[in-house]
Automatic annotation (TrEMBL):
Cellular component GO terms, alphabetical: plasma membrane
Domain Ras-GEF: 15-264
Residue ranges of the region described as Disordered: 251-292
Keywords of this entry: Guanine-nucleotide releasing factor
Protein name: Ras guanine nucleotide exchange factor domain-containing protein
Biased composition regions of type Gly residues, renumbered to the chain: 253-262, 271-291
GO terms (BP aspect): Ras protein signal transduction
Chain coiled-coil ranges: none
GO molecular function: guanyl-nucleotide exchange factor activity
Length: 340
């Protein structure tokens, strides 16, 4: 395999908070196009175009993460790129873009990247802890219990009369925080519930036996209701990053709004900082006609970053496997590099 020169500096030269925000906007745009009921007929080979678009971008972003690390010639450079992706992933957690967060973690968890044992061993303890905490959040154990609990923070749940004699109440959700949910969880829910309902139908088959359809199952209705609430959000992501996003302190809380921890604002990377602003659900920008000079500068940066994100090279699995093997040849060093 002929390894090209490093593309790592391209990523490292961009304000990482803006990179995360643009990933979030792309994920949100794709998510808002999905009609939740298109998940019902979902199978591995028959998928609605809007679902395919979201999952294709997920796979593209994951491979971009892999490639951006493996293409770097020197170990110190790979450590810096790996640390940068850890910051972007944490920022996506703060923005509640769980689809983008899961995609980056998937890219960091592939065998070719996990095999870079010396690179991982040289990552700073802070960056390592950051990745481990995010992996713990998105752990599929107990049916993604930790992730589901955090996702619930973005919803308000109430019980309403179902109008169905077989059910006393239905659950209705309304959103309270911006969220791009991890679509994979909902696809798994529908897949497993379809199998369970199919087995129930088979057991109940016979004259006079009533069988519930997939679209009538209360578990399906509740799952789709969550997607409907997020999709029809009254507080969708704004065009520009909110000021609170730039003013998150290096040391503070661990949540997804003002006071959350992890890293400097965009100013430290050459971008623009804002005021204290509001939390998720409010764009924090003053209303009025026209854009300010600050907004125009942000818009230019956002366009550059979007172009960067959508023009990463695609390489197949055999190439990244070989790149991983080549990168880890030689003896291990014990030095830790500052990866942020």
């Amino acid at each position: 395999v002929q390894l090209a020169s490093s593309t790592g500096p391209d990523l490292l030269s961009l304000p990482w908070r803006l990179v995360a925000f643009q990933i979030c906007l792309l994920d949100a745009h794709l998510f808002y196009r999905i009609s939740p009921h298109t998940l019902l007929p979902h199978t591995g080979g028959l998928t609605d175009a809007s679902i395919r678009a979201s999952t294709d971008f997920f796979n593209y972003l994951s491979r971009s993460v892999e490639y951006s690390i493996l293409i770097v010639d020197d170990q110190a450079g790979r450590v810096r790129v790996l640390g940068r992706w850890s910051k972007i992933a944490k920022a996506l957690r703060q923005l509640r873009d769980f689809q983008g967060l899961a995609a980056i973690l998937a890219g960091l968890s592939t065998p070719p990247v996990r095999r870079l044992t010396r690179t991982w061993g040289s990552l700073s303890r802070r960056a390592t802890s950051r990745v481990e905490a995010l992996r713990d959040l998105m752990d599929p154990q107990d049916n993604y219990a930790k992730y589901r609990a955090v996702e619930d923070e973005g919803l308000r749940k109430e019980e309403i009369s179902s109008g169905d004699p077989d059910r006393d109440t239905d659950v209705r959700y309304t959103d309270v925080l911006w969220t791009v949910p991890f679509l994979g969880v909902y696809l798994l829910d529908v897949t497993y519930l379809r199998a369970a309902i199919g087995s129930q139908k088979a057991r109940n088959a016979g004259p006079g036996q009533n069988s519930i359809t997939l679209a009538q199952d209360p578990r399906i209705l509740e799952s789709l209701g969550r997607l409907v609430a997020f999709r029809h959000s009254s507080s969708k992501y704004p065009e520009f990053p909110p000021p609170w996003y730039f003013s998150i302190r290096r040391k503070g809380g661990s949540g997804g709004g003002p006071g959350a921890s992890d890293g400097s604002g965009v100013n430290a990377s050459g971008g623009v900082s804002g005021g204290s602003g509001a939390g998720p659900g409010s764009d924090g920008w003053p209303n009025g006609g026209g854009r300010s000079a600050q907004e125009e500068q942000l818009l230019i940066q956002q366009r550059v970053i979007t172009h960067f994100l959508l023009t990463r090279p695609w390489v197949d699995q055999t190439v990244v496997d070989e790149m991983s093997r080549v990168r880890e040849e030689g003896k291990s060093g014990s030095m830790r590099f500052d990866s942020g």
